């Protein structure tokens, strides 16, 4: 490790420590762009669209049934069941931290679980507060890893390993839920079209990034990458050790952990149904959660607000759950998975930003070339 202190950015913020200058210099412009006024306006528009979708769902329930009864069921949910749901959600963050820990540990940079769990909460909060297809939360997570002494290539490998394993697990979950619905004669044309679109989206994103990386010397492709603020980040892919990213042992472990996260989330919905007195089989909650997650992924609202709730309530109703209980359980689930992490996520995100700035201001480590 050689060289000089970090240099402040023109906007007054310090850069990430010079020890990790290459990735920081590539990631910082994207982070600043995301936090600029246009990005904030896009985030506000996404939130507004999501809230309108949620309002439309509520109005449909009011028209078809009793919203007051749904809210009463949610308020009267049995505390013991809710504690189980809370424990399941805490377990999801532990699993997510273990996903990041696998490639870090194999490369000799294992971090304490408390650090990885904190970064996981920050990533979830950033992705929800600033909808950006996961880019904002990923950049925050990378900055946190760099601040804790992880080299840029290993930090990016941990991120890509997490994204790759989640996509594989998501695909398994969606196909399994489609099979369950087919066996229960609940798979119509709309579901098959949705699965086809989901598969296209799932394959399109990595294919697009690979294309940008492979043909970034073409002026038109380079201009597209620059416009999307991805070109500098994609350049970092050259440093990713593919033998670690595609290590079968690491991949099997991370996919298993990602599957556990999906099962815990579906279990939270199942417990929420029990809490409002609508006990049903786990496969019903699992299939409904998988379809709702798929709808949120391919839907027009970046945060999935409104689209997830509508799909969840629709699937639960289709599978025999009373409409009021379906809405109450879905609202409880979203309270645990979407709204509850927002407050600690906001505080932890501020902590991470302050810590990064302090380290950048005081670091005298030389940069790595």
Write a structural description.
This protein has 369 residues and is mainly alpha-helical. It has one domain (18-49, 83-355). Helix content is 76%, strand content 0%. It has helices at residues 21-34, 37-64, 67-75, 79-106, 113-129, 135-147, 152-183, 189-214, 219-227, 231-235, 242-245, 248-275, 282-298, 307-318, 323-339, 342-362. The longest helix has 32 residues, at 152-183. Mean pLDDT is 75; it is low at 1-37 and 364-369.
Mean pLDDT: 75
Domain count, please report it.
1
Determine the N-to-C terminus distance.
9 Å
Radius of gyration: 21 Å
The amount of helix comes to over 70%
Q: Would you identify the regions where 5 or more consecutive residues have pLDDT less than 50?
A: 1-37, 364-369
* Structural class computed from helices and strand pairing: mainly alpha
Shape: globular
Q: Tally the helices: what do you get?
A: 16
Tally the beta strands. 0
* Fraction of residues in β-strands: under 5%
Q: Write the element-wise H/E pattern from the N-terminal end onward.
A: HHHHHHHHHHHHHHHH
Q: How is the main sheet built?
A: none
Tell me the layout of helices and strands.
Elements: H1 21-34, H2 37-64, H3 67-75, H4 79-106, H5 113-129, H6 135-147, H7 152-183, H8 189-214, H9 219-227, H10 231-235, H11 242-245, H12 248-275, H13 282-298, H14 307-318, H15 323-339, H16 342-362
């Amino acid at each position: 490790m050689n060289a000089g202190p970090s240099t402040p950015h023109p906007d007054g913020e310090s850069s990430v420590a010079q020890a990790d200058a290459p990735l920081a210099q590539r990631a910082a412009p994207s982070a600043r762009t995301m936090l600029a006024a246009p990005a904030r306006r896009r985030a506000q528009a996404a939130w507004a669209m999501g809230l309108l979708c949620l309002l439309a769902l509520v109005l449909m329930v009011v028209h078809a049934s009793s919203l007051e009864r749904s809210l009463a069921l949610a308020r009267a949910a049995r505390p013991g069941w809710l504690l189980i749901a809370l424990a399941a959600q805490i377990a999801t963050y532990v699993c997510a931290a273990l996903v990041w820990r696998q490639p870090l540990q194999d490369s000799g940079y294992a971090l304490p679980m408390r650090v990885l769990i904190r970064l996981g909460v920050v990533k979830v909060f950033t992705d929800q507060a600033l909808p950006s297809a996961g880019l904002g939360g990923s950049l925050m997570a990378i900055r946190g890893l760099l601040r804790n002494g992880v080299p840029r290539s290993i930090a990016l490998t941990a991120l890509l390993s997490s994204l790759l394993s989640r996509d594989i697990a998501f695909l398994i979950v969606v196909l399994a839920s489609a099979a369950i619905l087919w066996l229960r004669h609940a798979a119509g044309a709309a579901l098959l079209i949705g699965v086809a679109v989901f598969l296209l989206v799932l394959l399109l994103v990595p294919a697009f990034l690979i294309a940008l990386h492979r043909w970034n010397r073409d002026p038109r492709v380079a201009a597209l990458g620059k416009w999307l603020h991805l070109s500098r980040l994609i350049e970092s892919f050259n440093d990713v050790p593919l033998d670690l990213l595609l290590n079968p042992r690491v991949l099997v472990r991370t996919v298993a952990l990602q599957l556990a996260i999906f099962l815990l989330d579906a279990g939270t919905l199942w417990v929420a149904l029990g809490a409002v007195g609508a006990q049903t089989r786990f496969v019903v909650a699992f299939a409904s959660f998988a379809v709702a997650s798929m709808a949120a992924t391919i839907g027009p609202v970046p945060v999935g607000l409104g689209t997830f709730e509508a799909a969840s309530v629709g699937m639960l109703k289709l599978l025999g759950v009373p409409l009021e209980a379906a809405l109450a359980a879905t609202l409880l689930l979203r309270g645990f998975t979407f709204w509850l992490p927002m407050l600690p996520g906001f505080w932890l995100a501020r902590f991470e930003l302050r810590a990064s700035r302090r380290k950048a201001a005081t670091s005298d480590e030389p940069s790595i070339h």
